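User: Teach me something about this protein's shape.
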Amino acid sequence: MYQKITVQTKTEVKPQTTAHLAQTMTLLNMGNGEVEEEIQKNLAENPALELDEINRCAMCGSEIAFGVLCKNCMNNQLKQDSQYLTFVSTREFPVSEEAADNEDYFEDGTVDRQTLPEYVLRQVGMELDDREKMVAASILTQLDDDGFVDVDILELASYHHIPISSVERVKGLIQHADPVGVGSKDAREALLVQVDELKRSKDIPEWTEKVISDHFHALLKKQFSEIAQQCEITINQVEKIANFITENLNPYPARSNWGDVRNPQENEMLQLGAPDIILSFFENNPQKPIMIEVFQPANSNLTLNASYHAALKTVDKETKMKMREDLEKASLFIKCLQQRTNTILRMAQVLVEIQEKYIREGDRYLKPITRAEIAKKLSVHESTISRAVSSKTIQLPNRKVYPLSVFFDRSLQIRTEIKEIVEKEKEPLNDQEIVTKLEKKGMHIARRTVAKYRDMEGILPAYQRKEKVKTK
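Assistant: First, the predicted structure itself:
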């Protein structure tokens, strides 16, 4: 029983049982290393499940040798003059000598480098039961690049069959973990959580919480006089609150320093390990179609144990019930693995279609897209795409490996433009002057956003760049 994968980007969405959906979502959230461990666990526990001795293509079912792409799939797609060539591969990714010598490099080809969701979950996990951990994973896998997520408390409670108060408790624990404020709906909520945490260790200026809660947008615009009038306090007090926020709080929790993830190693390939998806050009020719290769664990070629199934006829009623249960579990596990691979493959196809110019020509051509937009194209829930992206990496044709979430980085194109503007400047430009230049290119963002992106790229403010020029 090979796992035949459809390569169509639009499929009919059929109802699923709760068990099927839950197991598929769990597998989808895992990287290949974790999936391989889960397969080994199921093989050890369930006698109805076994590895198929014949290696088959997961897409067409034809027998293939290990370590090669399916020639049948290749020929069929070339005959159809396909825009993209898609494959599901179980061949091992070559590990460099440097990686092999690294003690942190695991057998599954990954490196012990925590993602933010993993880092937070490890902090709060000890205080959660199994169902609450699933809720925490649901919240954390939907975090955006700033550490925000807009969760539907009622929907999560209903889906995981736990009280609303339990979901609220889980969210609260996440928000008070490091970095404080992560898992909040927006910057305002993140700041309020940080204030609540800081109150335990230091004095907070009076009215701080009210100003953040009720006058956040006025605060951003530095409309201190208006805030003072509405709160019936002095402008001095408002300025003191603004200074406190600037010096002590971070409106973008995921952009702050957390764990050791902000201390990257020099070798980017080693940091991210073997990619889950590889994009390359057919025959290494940039003018030819893009090849999409999705990797699955080498032990994922599963089948039902024929001998175990045949033995049903020879056993008593009670044993037969247990054996049928084993067979049903094995069949469900195979289907869930198939659906995981299918979802990742379909998502990769859509991403390549949308971001082809970025893949071929570089960062400035990255289109701003969201997980919700991809979910709509595939007729799935946004959380499904969040799980499919989580902990996954992709290698682009330039052989650089990135987190799959790079395709959803809405700031990358603008940050690239800012870097180029600064590199070409004759005299250091201030942030407002950079805003003006971006507007001429059709990019309309606020001055404070330029400051944020400039800081992310490690570009000094204009006055400090001037000082550097003087000292040369």
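Now, about its shape. The longest helix spans residues 317-354. The chain has 23 helices and seven strands. If you'd like, I can walk through any region in more detail.
User: That's plenty for now, thanks!
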